[in-house]
Amino acid sequence: MTILEQLRGGVTTASADETRALAARLAAVLPPDTTLALHGNLGAGKTTFVQGLARGFGLNEPVTSPTFNIYTVHRPGSAAAGGRTLVHLDAYRLEGPRELEDLLLEEFLTSPWCLAVEWPEKVAAWLPPGALHLELDIGPDERHRLRLR
To answer: Model pTM?
Structure first.
């Protein structure tokens, strides 16, 4: 079973490290120029998931939530990273797609890239039709559930 099939069926992880490892596996099969919409409440593991994506792309710099910066661009340091740029957007403070357009984010989306969007419902009209939507939540047992819709 592929990682995409597993995620479509739903996956439960017991730790942040397991979530990162799952995301790294997904990074290995994501096509270039993919938008990944990460849906979930605070603490659901969205930033942790993006940390795993970065690891999967061979990016070694720290990945933290870009809540105050709005977005962070993580560029590969060498060809070993596969040339993939990871753009991590936190749309929580945005009021809508117009504010996103003002950020000129498209300037950083030089192929090949992956755009990971936290709080995508804030900018839903801006997301491309082919975006992958991943639901993340945390249960009362502190286990994280992830499902690709």
So the answer is: 0.90
